[in-house]
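[09:14] KT: can someone run the structure on this one? pasting the chain below
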Amino acid sequence: MAGCPIILKPAGTTPFSIIALAEILDEAGFPKGSVNVVTGPGSVVGEELVRNPGTDCIHMTGSTSTGIHLTQVAGVKRLCLELGGNGPLVVMDDANIDAAVDAAVLGCFYLAGQVCTASERILLHEKIHDEFVEKLVARAKAIKMGHPQDESTEMGPLHNQQTIDQVQEHIDDARKRGGKFLCGGNIDGHYCEATVVDGVTNDFLMYREETFGPVAPISTFSTVTPGVPASTTNGFMPARPADRSTVAHTTTSPFDSSRASLPLVQKIFSPLSTHSFVASSSTAVIWMAEVSDPAPGSVIATAVIISPLTHPGSHFCFCSSVP
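[09:31] RB: done, structure tokens below
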């Protein structure tokens, strides 16, 4: 920490965990002034931290619109931005269905869907639609909703009124557009039921935007070509691809991989689910994914997908597999 003090500015509505962390670090003997906490609204406190000439580097987790604003006012300061997304879970016809359902339950309902790495949509191959949906609905109905301090609770409340309004808007829009609600769809106060909506198309709000709630929108496809590119039609790159078959089949593009210069991409992944990190340059958007097997810690493939900006909608994929 020598010479590199930091200031933590938590979200204005959720400051207590950061305050507790600072107290722990102080108790552990961190030098005074090395870790500091400032609370308050982002439009005031956050804005000052970003614009202040004494700030050398900024790391922000938040919405894409806020991230764009930071790039406009931060000047030459170094930036590390973790922004919102609308990442799909793509499930191919040769996927391990039980593992895929586990990934969907975790991706859609963990922390009531209020996670920036949530599976905001499920793109499902039509051959396994019925079995997958039956198992997912059964799991969703079994989730116990309740107070976070009750140890038997499996899913807690929505964060605030803004989140409630957004989730309700997406649910209402899905009903208006003919979505088939297989379970859930009701909000009582701050509590939203685990919701599975079938028949979602790309004109639904919950398909095009980040819902940030416990909703699993399901769209069905029959071939890889319409299935996988559909995951990028809303302006966001995928954040959670499917089983090993996805990286095996997504291999057509006019892009010359020999001319690609790949940056170092760091990521965190867990069994039964895949996370990725997106990097961009002036010529391409680069997506790296590690696909893990049900066995804890077992990685079966690493894939890099490059979407050249010169050929919108196309992408090149190459992967290395572990037998």
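[09:33] KT: thanks! Confidence is low (pLDDT under 50) at residues 231-323.
[09:34] RB: yep, looked fine to me
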